[in-house]
UniProtKB/TrEMBL annotation:
Keywords, sorted A to Z: Coiled coil
Parts forming coiled coils: 49-76
A biological process term (GO) from this entry: DNA transposition
Entries under Pfam families matching the protein: HTH_Tnp_1
SUPFAM superfamilies: Homeodomain-like (SSF46689)
Signal peptide (from-to): none
Taxonomic source organism: Pseudidiomarina piscicola
High-level lineage: Bacteria, Pseudomonadati, Pseudomonadota, Gammaproteobacteria, Alteromonadales
Protein name: Transposase
Organism domain of life: Bacteria
Family: Belongs to the transposase 8 family.
Transmembrane segments: none
GO molecular function: DNA binding; transposase activity
Length: 88
């Protein structure tokens, strides 16, 4: 898996610089990213502090894990019901 190039603090700092009046082109040039990347970050992290972003990521990871568990348990239940309905 590809490692992240920028930390959460750097991303939030870049968004705050834009809110303070710095142009997106200048921020993108300084950070070495495309403007589209900045817009994606802004869409995802605008209005959040770095600790809130970390908490959001943790909650999303936990939610994914729980969804996988539910899917596995649902599959087990369906398999058991299928076995139970068969006539031997």
């Amino acid at each position: 898996m590809k490692s992240k190039r920028f930390s959460v603090e750097q991303i939030v700092s870049a968004i705050k610089q834009h809110e303070a009046g710095l142009s997106i082109a200048e921020i993108a040039r300084k950070m070495g990213i495309a403007e589209g990347t900045f817009y994606a970050w802004k869409k995802k992290y605008a209005g959040l502090e770095s600790d809130q972003v970390r908490e959001l990521k943790q909650l999303r990871e936990e939610n994914e894990k729980l969804k996988r568990i539910v899917a596995d348990l649902t599959l087990d239940k369906v398999m058991l019901q299928d076995l139970n309905t068969r006539k031997w």
